[in-house]
Design goal:
Blueprint (H helix, E strand, L loop, with lengths): L1 H42 L2 H27 L13 H30 L10 H28 L2 H28 L4 H29 L7 H9 L6 E12 L2 E10 L5 H19 L4 E8 L14
Parallel strand pairs: 2-3
Antiparallel strand pairs: 1-2
Helix pairs in contact: 1-2, 1-4, 2-3, 2-5, 2-6, 3-6, 4-5, 5-6, 7-8
């Protein structure tokens, strides 16, 4: 019981730090979106406005992330014995929906600009270039901060969101290229760049959906042979093998089930002690949020070492 409370307290501290990171990232994304949106609207650049929407969706994803992290931080209960960590991943699906809606809206605006009888000609002003330059620097800094925090806190949401934020840099560079084309006398390039941004947004949604599905559908996340090797590295007398390794989860926490083969003459007390050693070794190797269930089996010539299914 004390061990479970300690784990829940550590998880709460982790989620509190993740929330703090998201708040700072949210503030940066909103400021960046406002800068692009106001200037883009004033100069008539559909690419800048589209990029502003892209940044605004970053802010919306931060809000969704805050909600998801808050739910994920709730301690285990009778109805959720494995905790609520998947709420963090489920929140990523909300980002996907927002990205797809944004891509659709930008696509509509692009088609309207390209098919208009007298399309609006954007103004490639110095202010537009300055704003885009500043926002690119801000996005690089925010993405780096969020990625490093995500790795340190082992948060899949922060790492995924940092990639999303970094995609703004490429998008913003394309907007700058479009503004240069407008300056040189090719105004329709601005709309074309807007279309490219719509595709980038849609692709970002696809990637996030793909990664989230791996976690929600409990895809195997660790190499079973590697897990078996870690188990066999404990150098305890009487341990004969490890097999039937199953894994799921994410960088924020792995769940491992395995069968440990021991000397059939070993006492229950000694087998339990060795199982605890295995759990600690796996936690040291794969991270402090690794949860392991070890099933002890008596040794048999029919059971060998490895990660695949073998005879019972």
């Amino acid at each position: 019981m004390n061990r479970s409370r300690t784990r829940d307290a550590a998880a709460e501290r982790r989620y509190r730090r993740i929330r703090a990171v998201l708040v700072w990232v949210l503030v940066a994304n909103v400021l960046v979106a406002l800068g692009k949106g106001v200037v883009g609207w004033s100069v008539g650049s559909i690419a800048m406005v589209a990029d502003a929407f892209h940044s605004l969706m970053d802010g919306a994803s931060n809000i969704i992330g805050l909600a998801g992290i808050t739910l994920a931080a709730r301690p285990r209960d009778e109805s959720h014995s494995y905790g609520h960590a998947k709420f963090e991943t489920f929140a990523s699906i909300g980002i996907v929906v927002l990205l797809l809606v944004t891509a659709f809206q930008v696509g509509e605006a692009v088609i309207g600009r390209l098919t208009a009888d007298e399309p609006t000609v954007p103004e490639a002003s110095l202010l537009a270039f300055v704003v885009m330059g500043v926002t690119i620097v801000v996005n690089i800094a925010v993405s780096s901060y969020e990625r490093n925090a995500g790795r340190r806190l082992e948060s899949t949401f922060l790492v995924a969101d940092s990639r999303h934020t970094l995609s703004d840099v490429g998008v913003s560079l394309s907007v700058v290229a479009g503004l240069l084309a407008v300056y040189w006398g090719y105004p329709l390039i601005d709309a074309v760049v807007g279309g490219v941004i719509a595709v980038v947004i849609a692709y970002a949604a696809f990637k996030i959906m793909k990664e989230a599905s791996y976690i929600l559908l409990d895809r195997a996340v660790l190499d079973p042979l590697q897990v078996a090797d870690v188990c066999m590295s404990i150098d305890e007398e009487g341990v004969q093998g490890c097999h039937r390794v199953r894994t799921r989860g994410s960088e924020s926490g792995y769940w491992i089930d395995l069968h440990l083969v021991v000397d059939p003459e070993m006492s229950t007390r000694e087998a339990h002690r060795i199982a605890s050693v295995v759990e600690r070794r796996l936690k040291d190797f794969f991270g402090r949020n690794t949860d392991t269930v070890v099933h002890i089996e008596p040794g048999s010539p029919a059971i060998g070492r490895g990660g695949g299914e073998e005879d019972e």
